[in-house]
Amino acid sequence: MLDLVPGIFVEGTAGEASNNYSVRGLQGGGQRFVQLEEDGMPILYGGGGADFFFQQDLTIDRLEAVKGGSSGVLTVNGAGATINFISKKPSFDRFEGMARATYFNYGLKRADLYLSAPLAENLAFSIGGYYQSSPGVRRNPFDYDGYRVKAMLEYRFDDGGYLRLSAKRGDMDTAYYASMPYRYDNGDPTGFPGLDPQRDNIGGDAFRNIRVPVSTFVDRDGIRDFRYKDGIKSVSTQGRIDFEKPVTDTFDVFLHGRYLDYSYDFNGLFPGSGTGNGGLTSAVNYLTRGSGSPINDLLSLAPTNTARFGIRNLRTGALIAANQTAQLNALNGNGFLQRTTLNHDRVDAHDLGLNMGGRWEYKTDGFTNSLTAGVMYYDVLRKQNQSAVASVVNDVRNNSDIYDIVALDAANNTIATLSDNGLVSYGDWGNGIRQRHDNAVSFYANDELAIGDLRIDGGVRWENIQSTARDGLDAAGVDAANNIVEIRPGVFQQRVPAGTAGVIPTVGPTFAGQYATTNRSRSKIAWTVGANYLLTPNFAIYARYADGFQTNSVDPITTIKLYEAGARYQYGRLFSGSVTVFRTLFDNQNYNFANPQNPAQQQNINADLRTKGIEIDVAVRPVSWFSIDGQAVFQDPTLVNLQIDGATQSGYEGNRPERTPATLWTVTPTIRLPNGWGDIYGRYKYVGKIFADAGNGVALPGYGVTSVGFNVNVGENLQIGFNAENIFNVVGLTEGNPRQGQTQAITDGFFYARGIVGPTYGGSVTLRF
């Protein structure tokens, strides 16, 4: 749905949740600057991660979008764009309902239902939601299922206005897909030998449930389970109140409030994270001591009488020694192994939001004015447990196997098992314990003025945010009774639980039950002013300036200044179109990433971006039954003032920001069937070249995807819809290996990237009653 909004760039490659969507003029690869809302309130205050808890269903009536400008004034953390999903309102006239059944070729099965009816003269209700089961778009032995449901009760006042109470509940498991191995063939990205990049998935049965040692301050028994069979488990409960009431003929008051209690338990596989593209290498290299082995640290712990190393398949028990090179090179037809990170990340949180104020309307001949003013309040607490991030060695194929690393004598007898049921490291991304508590108050006002054919709008929002960050401290100075050892001067870690297999002595970076606390109080103003003038009934011009920001908890506030101007023209039914030129000044883009040399160490990048470009939106309708819609963005984004951990870095100035295309365009032809029977459509979307890193070391080529579909009204109350995506099986890469760092390289012709899937097709049947 976001692809339908001009200027929005969507990377829908992770699966159903945790995808990336960005807006023109800003850096790609995130969700931070696009605020998803439901009925005018953010799904989550911070913006990112909203798709864990929301999906379009039959309870939603339509979508409205605002890019830049007033977006950052009328909502929090939406300086780039606001996407507002507006619910169906309960029916006060009669009982009504809808039912929908959906199926897609990769295994998605979904049933939607919506019911609404009046209960009394001024009272009505609605209830709706869906249940689904799906393995995700890639091959997967597991099926993920769950439901979401929303109920609404509305009372209408006799003199106008309403009081609406609603509640939502969701419990959903979804698949997650990260990077896949790729190679270049004559300059074009293609799949790794033996692994279909368009459909395969390295995850599977071997990753069903893996016990990972952790600090006993995290889990009392010192074990935390990684469960790929659960995928992303998202649970949420929300209560909401909406109230609007006219006080006079020209003045209304409103109150919107919601309390969301939520959690997600993320079990995702990240091939190549930490080791980077160098971790995608031959099994022979893995078993050869030295810098060429991605597990050399583990090999160095082998007994002194080790003659060589080997791998043992945890599923079959088969053992291959390092001197059996023919068998190693024939492994799965490619001879490669990889190191895959198990990312287990659990968040428990609450998010309270309130928005209250008033709206004043004034109208005389040739003059209208609408002024809205109010206050917003948010209280957000997030507790995160990302401990037990560990890595295994697995082969490079669909539903891959995990291998133990063993030490062998001269006769290839096992003298020691070095890994722990395939685990070759613990605590890869640090101790992983942190909390964030934000209290934010905003005062805002927005005015819309129309004088004849001139329209002027302006708005301002002042926000104060009180933030507390509590970051878990590593063990230091803890007595030996807690099994703490000093592995090197000043670095303390906890011993693995007794009986743990393998030779790794500690759980890695060890949470000690204590926190480092940071408190910050900051304030910032967002404001905008714009004007639109209708020169003729068919031609209008407009201009806007906006100064917005994102709060980012205790991290530096990101500021976004947007200049844009444009024109819109229509010629009867035949043609309508707009052209917008824009300039974005984007300061303090700030985020953390794993140090490629030491993934347990988090590094901070802070950079400014400068973007100029043009956006085009055109609709051509030569005849009543045929139309072509086109959207395009051409932009020139550049990096300036890049710092890593506060130190200015050379070699980045003028580079393209990572994962940000310079060219985006979409063409959608539509044929409307006679007598209101429906429509048939096609769609071609092109995404230009992007870079996987700020250093612009790995370029991922542009790609175009073709889709087709139809909607047919079989009867007055029955509709059939069908859609097929990527019908020409195009390989498209949306990101490289983000955790490899800011300067990446392709190693021996192989690399990791996240790609779109091959052809998918399916549809739905909808009944209205």
UniProtKB/TrEMBL annotation:
Compartments where found: Cell outer membrane
InterPro entries linked: Beta-barrel_TonB, Beta-barrel_TonB_sf, Plug_dom, Plug_dom_sf, TonB-dep_rcpt-like
Topology of the protein relative to the lipid bilayer: Multi-pass membrane protein
The family this protein is said to belong to: Belongs to the TonB-dependent receptor family.
Protein name as annotated: TonB-dependent receptor
GO terms under cellular component: cell outer membrane
Source organism, top-level taxon: Bacteria
Boundaries of every TonB-dependent receptor-like beta-barrel domain copy: 317-727
Residue stretches making up the TonB-dependent receptor plug domain: 2-79
GO MF term set: siderophore uptake transmembrane transporter activity
Gene3D superfamilies, per the entry: TonB-dependent receptor, beta-barrel domain, TonB-dependent receptor, plug domain
UniProt keyword terms in alphabetical order: Cell outer membrane, Ion transport, Iron, Iron transport, Membrane, Receptor, Signal, TonB box, Transmembrane, Transmembrane beta strand, Transport
Cross-referenced Pfam families: Plug, TonB_dep_Rec_b-barrel
The keyword GTP-binding is assigned to this record: no
